[in-house]
Amino acid sequence: MAAFLLLVLCSLAPGALSVPPRPPVRCGDAGCVLSNAYGAWSSDRADCPVSAVAYPASERDVVAAVARASAGGMRVKAVSGFAHTIPKLACPGGGGGGNGSAASLLISTARYAGVEVDAAARTVTADAGAPLRAVIDAAEASGLSLPASPYWEGVSVGGAVSTGSHGSSWWGRGGALHDHVVGLSLVVPAGAADGWAKVVPLARGDALFPAALVSLGLLGVISKVTLALEPRFKRSVTYDYRDDSTFQDDFADHAARHEFADIAWYPSQHQAVYRLDDRAPLNATGDGVNDFIGFRSTLIAVSQGVRALETALEGSRNVKGKCAMAAAEIAAKRLIGNGLRRKAGQLFTGYPVVGFQGQMQTSGSCARSPASSPLTACAWDPRFKGLFFYESTAIFSPARFRSFVLDVKRLRDLSPDSMCGVDVYNGLLVRFVRRSEAWLGQPEDSVVVDFNYYRAADPSAARLSQDVWEEVEQMAFVKHGARPHWAKNRMVAFRGVQGKYPGWARFAAAKRQLDPRGLFDSPWSDDVVGGKELGKEDGCALDGGCVCSEDRHCSPEQGYYCRTGLVFTEARVCRYSASQLV
Fold this sequence. Notes:
By secondary structure, the chain is an alpha+beta fold. Helix content is 25%, strand content 23%.
C-alpha cells in the first residue's frame, strides 16, 4: 500500500511550490555540456561536451549560427529548452575542441519561441523553440484547435516534428504532429558564395518536404513550422477497465470507433484500460482538464520514496513486492481518473470528463512550474534522484502487433510475477498513428507500444527480471520487425533500422544534397543511422548497450548469464540463476 499512498499524496501536491526543470545546456569555467531531462542518455550516461553554444532569437540569428559552423567546418546540432529526447540525438560530438578534438557548436532554440496564428488560413506558425503548450494556447485563444499533439507537452515544436512525436489517432491525418505540418523552413550549410548558410523554405508538395518532416536534426536546423488548425472543439473522455482476454482481437476496432483512442495494457494484472475519447459538441457541459498524474509536479519526497521502494525491492529480489506495488499504483490511478479533472484545481469525480481540445490533448504541468519553492518537481528530475527508467517504444503493423501481444501473454503465463515491473509504471501504452508522407515517418497505419521499466542507478548493476524485458524488446524489434521511435529506446532497438523504412534511400539522398559535408552528423547518427556495429564489452547488455552473446556481456559475478529467450528462443537475454549450470 505504500505506492498507493505515495500516488495519492502526489495527486494532492501543491504544484505552485515547484522547481522548474533544469536547463539542458549548462556552462561553467570548464566549458559547456548538454544533458537531457533525465540526466542520462540511452547510449551512455556521460554529458555531451560542446565547444560553444549559440542562443538565436530570430531566423537571422539561426542563419548566422549555422554559417559560423559551416565556415569553420564545425560539427553542429540544435537543441530546445527541454531536451527530453532519450537517445543522444542532439549531441554534435567533437567534444570541447581541446586536446585535438574537433570543435562543435550547439544551437539552443530556447530563446527562439515566437508563435503567430493566422485565423483566416487556420494555421499557426511557430519558431522552432516555441513550447508546444504556447502553440496550443495561442490556437485556442483564436478559436482554433491543434488536432494532434504528443501526450507530453514539455517539447518544442521543432523537436517534436523532427523526431516524429505523436499522440493517438487513426482518423483524419492521424495522431502524429508532423503529419499536420503544411510548411517549414530549414537553415542548412552553404558555400562561401552564399554566406555559408541559407534558408530553405518547404511546403507540402515540394520534393524535399517528406525528408524535412522527420529529419532527426540531420539535414539542418528547423527554423519555423506552420501547422494546420481546425475550428475549436471539445473532447469527452472515459477510461473503461476490462479484462485483457480479447485485447489482441479488438484493438483495431477500438481505434476505428474512437477518434483519440488508446489502450493501457497491464499484463501482470490481466487488465486493459480502454480510452473512449471522441469529439463532443462545443455546447457540451464541461471545462475538463487532462492533468496526467505522471506529468504533474510531484513532491520530491514522494518521487524519492517511490524510487527507494522500487530499489529496495530490486535489491531483495522481491517480485511479489513489485506486484503489490503495481496493483496499488493501478488502483490509485483508477481512483483519481488517471489525472482527469472536471475543472482545473478540482479532483476527479467521475466520467465522462468533457473539456476543450487544448486542455485535453496533452499534459505536463511539471514542465511549466514556477521557481517558487523546492518542494515539488517532475518526478524524473535527476537533481533529486527520483524516478529513473528506460522507455522503449516499438511501432508495429497491426497484424504483427496481434502476434506480439500473444507472445507477451505466453511469456507472462510462464512467469506471471515477472511482468509486474512494467505495471509499476504505465503498463504497455498502446497508441495509433496513420501512414505518413514523411520518409522517416510510418509507412503504414501503425500501432505504437510504449513501456517504461526500472533503470539501475549503477549501469553495471543487473536488474530484477531484466531477461523478461530484454526478451520483450527483442520480440518487438527482431521477431516482429517493429520500428523504433526515434526519440526513445535503448541502442539495441535501432539495429537494422534502415531496412525498416522504405523511404530511407530518399532521405539519405536529401541529406547528401542539403548537408554534403556532414556537419550535422554526430556519433549517434554514425552508430545508428550509419548502421555501425557497436563493439561488445564486458557487461554491455546490463544497460542496453548490446544484446548478449556471451556470459561476460551480462554479469556472472551477480548471477546473470546469457541465455536464450523462453518464448522467442532466438532472443539472447541476461537471466539470473543461482548456478551457471541452471
